[in-house]
Design goal:
The protein is of the alpha/beta class. It has three domains: about 220 residues, P-loop containing nucleotide triphosphate hydrolases (Rossmann fold, 3-Layer(aba) Sandwich); about 50 residues, no CATH class; about 220 residues, Nucleotidyltransferase, domain 5, CATH 3.30.420.240. Helix content is about 40%, strand content about 15%. The protein contains 20 helices and 17 strands. The chain has an eight-stranded mixed sheet with strand order 3-4-5-2-6-7-1-8, sandwiched between helices. Strands 9, 10, 11, 12, 13, 14 and 15 form a seven-stranded mixed sheet that branches. It has a two-stranded antiparallel sheet with strand order 16-17. Helix 2 crosses helix 3, helix 4 packs across helix 5 and helix 10 crosses helix 11.
Length: about 525
């Protein structure tokens, strides 16, 4: 090291960011696209990303960058990798990892970075490429980069100076073991950095959504958020709306192709949700969701208590013995809106394991009273029957809809709990899960949600079910909720749809009775 280097003052955050931008533009070349092989000239929004990450006066521990697809997110990730592997951000013997759910996704950043190395006369002399292992090494300083996927047998024991999580929005639910393993393995590093680059996740309950929402509060100055999304209320097919989520639209994206996608989504409603999620970077389930997050949130008002005389209607979705069971009661205690009171059960045994497998915080919801557990490793129908008997004693439950397939197992326990045969026949209503019964129920539920005539108080388990629910069917008159196509548990929304459906069927009778 020269005397001049020793005496040189440290870089300011702004100088550090500009140094990193200059290095990338000097040594890196575009690995793909119509300008492949040309020197990298970073778009202004990419430079702003670097300024936010490396120019943060507080120092950056976590950076979240979220925008629509095809805005050069993978190229930017590859540039960051090389910047830390053999550029001015290197740390001697430092380890760098990029993480994704699948091997194919994990290989994308490695592919871009290795191509950049091969194209650069300088980098290809100092960086060694191991294609089979998806590794890059810089022997001169001892640094190493490797691509990891969720299929990796273990991520424990690693000590990364830089971790990039690519398309974390593909993770369903609030937990991802690979993310957790990498984030808890940085204690030995003085200045670890995590960069998350992804299009939005579909629901509020997903890991990326939780990270974005937390970052948006500004509570941690060491977490920076670079977020480009189109507002939900804007015209989704307007070019100005599209540009809000795609800063590269007028730079290097194929605008003609993007606008054609918008026109397809306009003409084909089944394509709209996918377009909103992937192109407009909105928090929308891409697989024909039943309800959008904004509509669901608009009905998150306070749920009033039910009086013993308030007419109630319910839906009971009986699970298999170890899965989520849902009971939803609805009523109008204020004579204006329908108020929703859901109850959910899971077996207490194996609850933590089920939380991990479903990537849903069942254990936390249980502690906070949003989810009830029953002893053992299964939902016993005797237990459900006793609870139903207690509810019928306390409330004026006019009708309770149920899926006929599991009712045969519940009926004997209802009788044992004190329900008479006549009461079971009068109060319990068979409700098919096919299009004949579900289509009118879903239509009624949609109207209540659209008109803000429903209050659910943002119950987290019910909200999770709503966020995961996907419909299938050839048209609005032939639809049903699909548990197979949905992204997670939807039992609560099934029960809510049945409750609304049976209420709409039975209320005219009740009104006539009241008038008489």
């Amino acid at each position: 090291m020269t005397d001049a280097a020793i005496l040189a003052p440290p870089l300011t955050p702004a100088e550090r960011a500009q140094r990193n931008i200059d290095w990338c533009e000097k040594y890196l070349f575009l690995p793909e696209g119509k300008h492949v092989g040309e020197p990298l000239v970073m778009a202004e929004f990419m430079q702003d990303d670097f300024r936010a990450i490396y120019g943060n006066p507080a120092g950056t521990r976590r950076a979240i960058v979220s925008r629509g697809r095809k805005n050069a997110k993978s190229v930017e990730c590859a540039a960051i990798v090389l910047l830390h592997l053999c550029g001015p951000e290197y740390r001697p013997n430092g380890s760098i990892y990029s993480c994704a759910q699948s091997r194919d996704q994990a290989a994308i950043i490695f592919d871009r970075a290795s191509k950049m190395v091969k194209m650069s006369p300088v980098l290809r002399r100092v960086v060694k490429i191991r294609e089979s292992a998806k590794e890059l090494r810089c022997p001169g300083v001892g640094t190493m980069y490797k691509a990891l996927s969720a299929e990796t047998s273990t991520a424990f024991g690693l000590s990364p100076v830089l971790t990039i999580h690519d398309e974390l929005g593909q993770v369903k639910g609030p937990r991802f073991p690979l993310y957790e393993a990498m984030e808890t393995s940085t204690a030995a590093q003085e200045e670890p950095l995590t960069v998350v680059i992804s299009t939005q996740a579909p629901s509020d309950a997903d890991l990326l959504s939780m990270l974005i929402d937390d970052a948006a509060t500004g509570a941690d100055p060491r977490t920076i958020l670079r977020f480009d999304t189109a507002p939900m209320d804007d015209d989704p097919f307007d070019e100005e709306t599209i540009a809000k989520a795609n800063p590269a639209l007028d730079i290097f994206m194929n605008k003609t192709e993007v606008l054609a996608m918008a026109e397809d989504a306009r003409r084909l409603p089944a394509r709209e949700a996918e377009f909103r999620n992937l192109v407009l970077n909105q928090r929308v389930e891409a697989s024909n969701p039943f309800v959008t997050p904004s509509v669901w949130k608009s009905c998150g008002g306070e749920v009033l208590p039910f009086a013993s005389t308030t007419p109630l209607y319910g839906g009971l979705d009986l699970s298999s013995v170890a899965d989520l069971t849902a009971l939803v009661l609805i009523g109008q205690p204020d004579a204006k809106k329908w108020h929703v009171k859901p109850t959910f059960w899971l077996p207490s045994e194996g609850l933590a394991e089920k939380s991990r497998s479903d990537r849903v915080p069942y254990d936390m919801w249980t502690q906070k009273g949003f989810l009830e557990t029953c002893d053992g490793n299964s939902i016993k129908y005797e237990y459900v029957a006793k609870i139903l008997r207690d509810l019928f004693n306390r409330y004026n439950i006019r009708k309770l809809a149920f899926d006929r397939w599991n009712m045969a197992h519940l009926k004997p326990w209802l009788e044992k709990a004190g329900f008479s045969v006549n009461m079971i026949e009068d109060r319990f209503v068979e409700f098919g899960q096919g299009t004949q019964s579900m289509s009118p129920a879903l239509r009624s539920l949609e109207e209540l949600l659209r008109d803000k005539q429903l209050c659910h108080a943002d119950h987290p388990v019910l909200t999770m079910c709503a966020a995961c629910a996907v419909v299938e069917g050839k048209d609005d008159a032939n639809r049903k909720l699909s548990k197979n196509k949905s992204s997670g548990r939807i039992d609560g929304l099934v029960a809510l749809a049945m409750a609304v459906g049976v209420a709409q069927q039975m209320r005219p009778v009740d009104v006539t009775t009241l008038i008489a």
